[in-house]
Amino acid sequence: MNAANNDAQFDKLIVQEVSPRDGLQIEPTWVETVDKIELIDSLSTAGFTRIEAGSFVSPKAIPALRDGDAVFQQIERHPGVIYVALVPNLKGAERALAARADELNLVMSASQTHNRANMRMSCESSLMAFDDIVRYVQGSGVLLNATVATAFGCPFEGRIDEDRVVGIVDTYREMGIEGITLADTTGMANPRHVRRLVARVLERLPAAALTLHFHNTRGLGLANVLAAYEVGARRFDAALGGLGGCPFAPGASGNICTEDLVNMCDEMGIPTGVDLPTLLALSRGLPALLGHDVPGQLAKAGRNCDVHPVPEYVLQI
Amino acid sequence: MNAANNDAQFDKLIVQEVSPRDGLQIEPTWVETVDKIELIDSLSTAGFTRIEAGSFVSPKAIPALRDGDAVFQQIERHPGVIYVALVPNLKGAERALAARADELNLVMSASQTHNRANMRMSCESSLMAFDDIVRYVQGSGVLLNATVATAFGCPFEGRIDEDRVVGIVDTYREMGIEGITLADTTGMANPRHVRRLVARVLERLPAAALTLHFHNTRGLGLANVLAAYEVGARRFDAALGGLGGCPFAPGASGNICTEDLVNMCDEMGIPTGVDLPTLLALSRGLPALLGHDVPGQLAKAGRNCDVHPVPEYVLQI
């Protein structure tokens, strides 16, 4: 199927798998530490180079991820895989380093209201906390990434000024944070907006330093990936099964679905290095693990190459 | 929200609403004739210029649409709306004309196997039936459209040769059929494939004569719309709520969802003429009508401009 599409060579699209963190954090069902470790260890064999494996936030704030220390200490480290931890403050950074996280992901919303709702502090306080973390991590060899959440819109404030997003990117970089994520936290981005903002940000930092984090809340996740890829973005977050909903859109879809994304890339001839059959097997195990259906579509539909047997009556026509 | 995105002028994207036909045809729940008529009459007020309102196939083959005659006779005709009927053969065309359909849509699959499975005849027999219909309709003022089903892939045969699809388009046009639909019947298309095939077909007929019919089975429906739009396609089928699954992908999504499509266009500044609040109200009534949840996402997530109240605790930070 792909061969016929391979008349041009595409750059690799790097998928950062975030199901163990952004996927599980709002799950009402407790996933046992051993099951989280098994999921991450399985994902490590699928060809990912980056896995967001957990977070070191307050267990009261995110009880579903309260075992981040044990998870990071017990997962099998695969060579060539960077295991990322989300940390909200210096205490989280200390825990993450003790548990041998390879990279820390810090999060602040472009929207003041959303940052107060999500992080329970102002953007100014978030930046001060980031500064503490940057100084603490310095010299440890641990990598740093910072996310601009609600970069494409806020569920409270609506439209977010693009200059503000670009300004935050500059602030992060000036603080010494190399990796930047633009997050469409509640799925408000559209391909035109994505093209414009991503092109602007890529004037300021190399593609290797930029991650796009899209949610499929309004069905535009994969269209937004293509729009960003077309203007030069190369790294994208995605969650197995499309896990990770939005508390403001009950029943709507979550993160863009890893196997749906990898299938799109496979069909278009965009290399990812990720093995789709491994993903499908893992994704098909999620309903049993979580006790509910998941939004990803490829696990239900199968790949294009999974052709169906011809019905008996057809042979008689 | 849109104003800021409106720095370039886009051509109108014409949405043909197909929920009354492709949406309802596989519904296991019987939708009363009066409810079908009410749905179509409501859709007629939403700004569509084209509605596929029913079909004139054998009641044994598609029992859910066995009341096509009554539906077409009793719907309110809105000026400027073309009411399309799907017809499989001369008998269906006779019924459709008697019921005052404005346009007939004929369907044949590019895949022989799929045509035998779906239409219970060979492609050659389908073309002979088309010829009868073309001659019957001549001079009546009724418009003709013909669909190439499985144009982007077949669930039995897999890949479909693009030359074959283009050849069928030529055959249709040579037979005197003006409108052409390329249908991705089971959601196997990808944006790259779409760009290539649509560009080829648009070398042979004007954009006003071409409709793209995408299913969202593997999550690529809206990305495929944009790919086709970018190479010049202007008319797209979509179904309210994303109704209309695929029998080969149980649980997977159906047609691309009208309100998700119109939302994408509104956010990007692509005019459609369709009123999104009307669509959302109609879509939110579908679960009660059909007895199950529907795949459309915007009805769950709301529009970007539907901002949420700021939580009490945020005001105290």
TrEMBL record, chains A, B:
Keyword tRNA processing in record: no
Entry keyword Magnesium: no
Entries under InterPro entries matching the protein: Aldolase_TIM (IPR013785), HMGL (IPR043594), PYR_CT (IPR000891)
All residue ranges annotated as the Pyruvate carboxyltransferase domain in the record: 13-280
A family per Pfam: HMGL-like
A Gene Ontology molecular function term of the record: lyase activity
Keywords annotated in UniProt: Lyase, Metal-binding
Similarity remark: Belongs to the HMG-CoA lyase family.
The protein, known as: Hydroxymethylglutaryl-CoA lyase
Organism: Paraburkholderia strydomiana
